[in-house]
Amino acid sequence: MTEGIDPRYAGFESWPMDQRVHALVEANARAVQAALQAVPALTRAAAGIAERLQGGGRLVYAGAGTSGRLSLQDAAELPPTFDFDRTEVLLAGGDDAGSSAKEGAEDDAEAAVHAVDVARVGPRDALVGVAASGRTPFTVAAVRRARERGTFTVGIANNPATALLEAAEVGVLLDTGPEVVAGSTRMVAGTAQKIALNALSSAPMVEVGALYGNLMVAMRPTNVKLRRRAVEIVSAATGAAFGEADAAFGRCAGDIRVAIVHLVSNLEPATAAGLLERHGGRISLALAEHGGARE
Known about the structure:
By secondary structure, the chain is of the alpha/beta class. The protein is built from 13 helices and 7 strands. The strands form 2 sheets. The chain has a 5-stranded parallel beta sheet with strand order 2-1-3-4-5, with helices on both faces. Strands 6-7 form a two-stranded antiparallel sheet. The chain is globular. The model has no long low-confidence stretch (mean pLDDT 95).
């Protein structure tokens, strides 16, 4: 289906620029709809991933071409956003394929098996394989090998009844149909994959203590803008004025979570940090144990 030719776009070459752009943008509505239809499968996948991450495991991605590069991007965003760096990306063609296309590498199933073994992907980990076609040899082989090693596996594909969906413990179908530019699955199919990856890597972050409510309490304040945002998060979470939140943030060595527990509980920063550690960084659980609110 992703390789099909949609007759609605047969005259694309002769269309005026505004009509071409409109068609390309409008088509992405199908990506959102496909992801919404996949919510039940995505939920099962996210629950399995959360269980592995909560137990100290890694989030591993496997893919080729656009799907692999989307996986690489998703993994790269987790450390600054959630302070989560237990990731591994198995990319067909190796690291160089992250910045330049290596299309032939997707056919190398043996390389995928080798990559899974070298990375020691195992029962504590979760592996997400992504391929628009659902039959990319590298990705299918990576998922099969990881599952043989006891890993929780997820397969994301844009075509139904494909090898990738069957190989994984949880198959996620993103039924986006044919592209405006026939066969160019970096478009609608890729957009749907990005939506799915966002959900699968963000929802489980609750279990590793990276969210309090919907606030990014584990983000890394590595520049002036992000430091201000961090203080604003402390302020929003505690009700403290910006200046008070800023002072607490400083006392807590720039740790948003410790600053929140410190302000809400009136515990000393070191004590607040210990309380958080006992609860895996979960602010709500730490405060529930303390049993006190900010006076």
